[in-house]
Write a structure and sequence with these properties.
Blueprint lengths: L4 H11 L5 E6 L7 E6 L2 E7 L6 H17 L6 H18 L4 H7 L4
Helix pairs in contact: 1-3, 2-3
This protein binds zinc ion.
Zinc ion binds next to α2.
């Protein structure tokens, strides 16, 4: 299945209307599935192209990063977990995806 980058970008902008969020794909992240960079000029999310081969994996990686942005916590605590699940639900609804939870279970712990 192709990755609907434009839809993903549009949905991300809708979820975070006050912050310009740029999504980048890279092969240079080693073991990280994603990397979040918050600077004055905006937010950059780097997606590991080697680990995220499908659309569901990309959305999970983006939601992971955005949950850190939304909660402003570096840990994967209960607050982060709640934000993560809310973001997954929002992408699933807007993009018409029904199997994100299955992909999440199949992925290595992130
Ligand atoms: Zn994390």
């Amino acid at each position: 299945m192709t990755i609907r980058w434009k839809r993903i970008q549009k949905t991300t902008s809708e979820l975070f209307p006050d912050q310009p969020i740029n999504i980048h794909v890279t092969t240079a992240l080693n073991n990280l599935i994603e990397f979040l960079s918050v600077e004055k000029g905006g937010v950059d999310i780097l997606i590991n192209a080697i680990k995220c081969k499908g659309e569901n994996q990309v959305i999970i990686a983006i939601s992971h990063a955005l949950a850190h942005l939304k909660t402003n916590v570096a840990l994967h605590d209960q607050i982060w977990e709640t934000a993560f699940k809310e973001l997954l639900d929002a992408y699933a609804l807007k993009l018409g995806i029904h199997d994100l939870e299955i992909t999440l279970k199949e992925m290595e712990p992130i």
